[in-house]
Amino acid sequence: MRFTTPDKPVDVAELFPELAGLARTAVRLHPRAGATTVRESSLGGPLLWPADEAWPVCEVDHPDPRPLTSAEGRELERRLVEAHRAVGASPHDAALYRAYQAVEADIRRVRRVEYADDPAARLPMVAIAQFYARDVPELPFPEGTDVCQVLWCPTDHDPHYAPLPRVWWRDASTVTAVATAPEPDRDLSEEEYLPTPCRIAPERVVEYPDWDDLPSDELRERISAWERGQEWRYRADLATAPGTKVGGWPDWIQSPVEPECDRGHRMVPLLTVASGEVGAWRTWLPVETRAEVAFQKEVRFATVDGGTGHTVIERDEVFDPAGFRIFGRAVVPESVEEELIPDYRTVPRGMDMMLGDVGNLYIFMCPHCPDRPVEVEFQCT
Ligand SMILES: [Zn+2]
Ligand SMILES: [Zn+2]
After folding, report:
1. How far does the centroid of ligand 1 lie from the alpha carbon of residue 163, in Å?
2. Domain spans of the chain, in order of start
């Protein structure tokens, strides 16, 4: 299946010429639940993983609520409570905080001894993405490689409370016998971080910087002035594509970050993994998806006591302000506005993950360093 993002209703680079040089191409992936093979690009699908290479496991200290049982462990846990109380009483005392971290580190050391065979200490990573160079040639494949594989550990990690991804680049021609992925550990994995396998349908779109990535306040002010009196919003409708995508400009939920590698190079977006694919639907929902999805009406209004409210009704339903009460309050009839919105229950199934509260996980990479170091940012509402 092909997906086509509609042409934009306005050309922002024509309205604001300084945006022209900031245009970037993003590859929207348009995931749809469905089976794929190791020889195809996919999201959450089977990987071309060599049979003679151990499947990756995550060995960081995952959150573990089980108590320690040794005398040393119990003493450390008692000291942790004390150290926590001390930090709480003097939150700006760096020495107290260091002491607290030292006790935590000791607890992790003892935990590794007490739970040496602990599956929580070696969680199998799960496949998130596989891209062949023929499908996503935009990726900076290191010399001699033509497959990019992204896996993540499907539970929460510091500091973002999010899955922890790793990226591999390999040469498909060197892989003959292919490994079978182990079953994820369903007890210790976060169910919402285990993707439904999806086919992808890469589509190139032009993006412009998200609001806080714009180069100046002066430009933001001119865009705000232009937005008054017309129906399109730069940030939601015109700048960055929602959903799971390669490259482009990040579709931030909170403030932007600009990661650098250890050698001081500015990193670029490799992959955004999104909790949902539908953003501002009028400009970003592909025409093919639009034909599949049912629509409803969102009705917004003011109430007689000066408040506001909204409700959702069926597309062919007529809203009667006189007969409607919200928490017992009547609606101001002249204030009623209606807008078509997709019925999310009818949006076709994608990776089916909920990252935090409708969050995005952003994987950045250094395109200059040959080993392509990565950084991760996670944001949610
Ligand atoms: Zn992990
Ligand atoms: Zn670098």
Report:
1. 7
2. 32-57+122-199, 71-117, 294-346
